[in-house]
Amino acid sequence: MTFAYEQAGSLADAARAAGGPDAKILAGGQSLLAAVKLGLAAPQTLVDLGALAELKGIKLEGDNVVIGAMSTHAEVAASSVVQQAIPALADLAGHIGDRQVRNRGTLGGSLANNDPAACYPAAVLGLGATIRTDRRAIDAGDFFLGLYQTALQDGEIITAVSFPRPQKAGWQKFKQPASRFSIVGVFVAQTSSGVRVAVTGAGPGVFRAAALEAALAADWSAAAAQKVAISAEGLNTDLHGSAEYRAALIPVLAARAVAAAT
């Protein structure tokens, strides 16, 4: 397979190149390069964002933690800003994949790929974050559309993600031991707009668990989460577990996440 490789020198250059026919944006490359090797993706051009300092960095903006799209998982996990403001997010980032993946994979790349078992989507949806691109700002609730589908338009580039600082937040996942993706992962948060619970790995995409949100809004406790029954309808069944197994895991992990948050 042959393709052109272009290392963008600026966001404008990246946007121009990404708008070309069959162009793919290369962030950390942890998913895209594997797909190319397997013949699942055949880009004519790879547009590398690795040299763009403007897409990196982690900072506080008021009550929000703003993380550049090209920040690696390891950088998010090690950030004192994230550790102090949203420790659950630092914990989540620190348990993605292995050390090699954490030092290459990026926040923006993970969100743009939207793997149904990825960890970051749960934090983004659970915290009600805003995804910033070179064109607009997208609310987390509008960003994730389904299996590997997002609201990103062709050539649109994620530049940063703004995470509101929660009152409390916790994260737990039951991982697939080889890939370390989530068989089920649950992110819980008390936010200014109420309790939010986001689940990854269990279905065809990340989703909010309304029954758990209602129970935890009434009683923020591990016991309250544990008592919630989750329907298996629409959940995944594969070699790692049945839909019923995943449904049973969700309140267990939610309870552990609440305990970790408190």
TrEMBL record:
Keywords: FAD, Flavoprotein, Oxidoreductase. The keyword Ion transport does not apply. Signal peptide: none annotated. SUPFAM superfamilies: CO dehydrogenase flavoprotein C-terminal domain-like, FAD-binding/transporter-associated domain-like. It holds the Pfam family CO_deh_flav_C. Transmembrane segments: none annotated. It comes from the Bacteria. The keyword Transport does not apply. Residues 1-168 form the FAD-binding PCMH-type domain. This is Xanthine dehydrogenase family protein subunit M. It comes from Roseateles violae.
